[in-house]
Design brief:
single chain, mainly alpha, 152 residues, elongated
C-alpha cells in the first residue's frame, strides 16, 4: 500500500505533465488563431444613407469607436495567445520540480482561466492536489534538499 505522500507525489507529477502538454498544445494553436484574426478588419453594414450631417457624424464616431475597441481586443488576444502557453510551461515545470509553492498555486488558478474546458479541469485538479498538506510537505522537503545540497 502506498503512503499518502507517495500518492500525492504521483498526482503532482501527473498534473505537472498535463499542464506542460496543455501549454505545448496551446503554444501551437493559440498564436495561429490570433495571427489569423489579426488581419481581421471590421466593416460595418451601412445600407441607408444618413438623413442629416449629425447622423453621419454619429455613425462615423460609432464606427471608429467599434474599430478601436476591436483593434485593442485583438491585440490583447494576441498577447494572451503567447503569454498563456509560456506561462503553462513555466507552471508545469515549477510543479514538476516542486519549487515556489505559492507561484504554483497561483499558476494553477491561471491555468483554469486560459483554455476553458480543458484548462478548467486540469487547473482545478492542480489546485485540489496543491492545496493538500501532503503536497505542501513535498514542496518543503524539496526546498530543504536544495538547501542541504548548497551547504555541502
Amino acid at each position: 500500500m502506498s503512503t499518502p505522500t507517495a500518492k500525492r507525489y504521483k498526482q503532482l507529477k501527473m498534473v505537472a505533465w498535463l499542464i506542460i502538454v496543455l501549454g505545448g498544445i496551446t503554444l501551437v494553436v493559440f498564436p495561429l488563431v490570433a495571427s489569423h484574426l489579426s488581419g481581421f478588419d471590421f466593416e460595418s453594414d451601412v445600407t441607408s444613407p444618413p438623413d442629416t450631417p449629425r447622423d453621419l457624424a454619429n455613425r462615423i464616431s460609432a464606427e471608429h469607436f467599434t474599430k478601436v475597441v476591436f483593434y485593442y481586443l485583438l491585440r490583447l488576444m494576441y498577447i494572451w495567445a503567447w503569454f498563456y502557453p509560456l506561462f503553462c510551461l513555466l507552471v508545469g515545470t515549477l510543479i514538476l520540480y516542486r519549487r515556489f509553492y505559492t507561484l504554483s498555486v497561483l499558476g494553477a488558478a491561471l491555468v483554469c482561466l486560459g483554455a476553458f474546458p480543458l484548462g478548467a479541469v486540469i487547473g482545478g485538479w492542480a489546485l485540489f492536489v496543491l492545496c493538500n498538506r501532503d503536497t505542501k510537505f513535498l514542496f518543503q522537503e524539496q526546498s530543504e534538499l536544495r538547501e542541504a545540497d548548497f551547504l555541502d
